[in-house]
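Both lines are quoted verbatim for reference:

——
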Amino acid sequence: MKDLAFWAQSLDNQAPDVIFKDGQELSDDELRQKLVSEIYEIPKSNIEVAPTDSSVTIRYSYPKFVIEAVPTEKDQANRLAPIVIYGVLPDDFSEPWVKDVCNEIENFVSETLKRTLDKKCQLVAYPMIC
């Protein structure tokens, strides 16, 4: 595990947002708000945008990063429901670390959230993190 945090909207538009940190779902409102505040601290001016047809963006303020990935599923109002992934780059940043992060994201999205990232999203995310 790469100590990632995940924040996703509930697709039914009624349940609270799904927020996980370090593999645990956060239910405490104070902890949830603290994590969301940390995510919003990453300056929007440091955005690296993928190609126009991509559903991935990455913001970073070294060493912290935020990835926003849009799954194929939409909410009940037929709107996009991005998944936000937050983490910290390690001092020993390497290609194996990037592959592990990509795998962890894919596993969390598919197994925990039961959502799907299209293959184009996966192919774009990998080189952007490098």
User: Anything to note?
Assistant: Residues 30 and 66 are 20 Å apart (CA to CA). Residues 5-129 form one domain. The beta strands are 5-8, 18-21, 24-25, 47-49, 56-61, 64-69, 83-88. The chain is about 30% helix and 25% strand.
